[in-house]
Amino acid sequence: MTDRLLVIFAALTLMVGVGTGAFGAHALKRILSPDMLAIWQTAVQYQMVHGLGMLLIALLATRYGSPLLHYAGMLMFAGVVVFSGSLYLLAFTGIRWLGAITPFGGLAFIAAWAMVALAAWRSAP
């Protein structure tokens, strides 16, 4: 994934995050139970944090030029889709088995951040 494409994906991730946050706070507040609304809010929080993380990775990629950073960006985007996406679906539909998918998104986040650390570690001082 190029730096430019990662910035585009990050911006779209953040844009959708703002929209889902507003949708949850206004439209779903009256529809979802407090537990399901908390799950929705967790999805929004992780989406926003990792959207910003994708922007950071794009900036770091121009500095360090490590291929690991490109993989980290793709993995972080995949993490948003799997982690936040499964939580959005869980909160909206109540289908509990979707919660079993969520940890795979969390693992993608952890692996992406580990790649960022490794890319920085391997860079020349």
TrEMBL record:
Compartments, record wording: Membrane
Per the record, what is one GO cellular component?
Answer: plasma membrane
Topology with respect to the bilayer: Multi-pass membrane protein
Signal sequence coordinates:
none
User: Which UniProt keywords are listed?
Assistant: Membrane, Transmembrane, Transmembrane helix
In terms of InterPro entries, this protein maps to: DUF423
Spans traversing the lipid bilayer: 43-61, 68-91, 97-121
Q: What is its main location?
A: membrane
Family to which this protein belongs? Belongs to the UPF0382 family.
- State the name under which the record lists this protein: DUF423 domain-containing protein
Q: Which organism is it from?
A: Pollutimonas thiosulfatoxidans
